[in-house]
Amino acid sequence: MALEQQMHAPSPAQLAPGRPHNGLGLTALGLGLLAVLTSVSVLGGLWCGAAALVLGAMSSNRIAAGEATNRAVTRVGVLLGLLGVVLSAGVLLELLLRVAQP
């Protein structure tokens, strides 16, 4: 009986069902903003933007499951992450074109 109870321990979401878990969406927003700000350094924008996209997707899954309530924050984080990736790709393309010119 005790072993069975240990195997089926409640998840953190089950321990506090009334409290939303909005950390992933807020982190996606912060990383998305950081991605836009560091997009001129190429790597900063790509890494932070990619991380914002991944965390935004994970937050969207939590929202769909009813575990989080910050849909707008998550969407803005994903959009800023995407913008950071696009800006970084543009800067990288510009650098590659300048290097390739004789």
From TrEMBL:
Protein origin, superkingdom: Bacteria
Transmembrane segments: 28-55, 76-97
UniProtKB keywords: Membrane, Transmembrane, Transmembrane helix
The keyword Transmembrane appears for this protein: yes
Name this protein carries in UniProt: DUF4190 domain-containing protein
Organism: Motilibacter peucedani
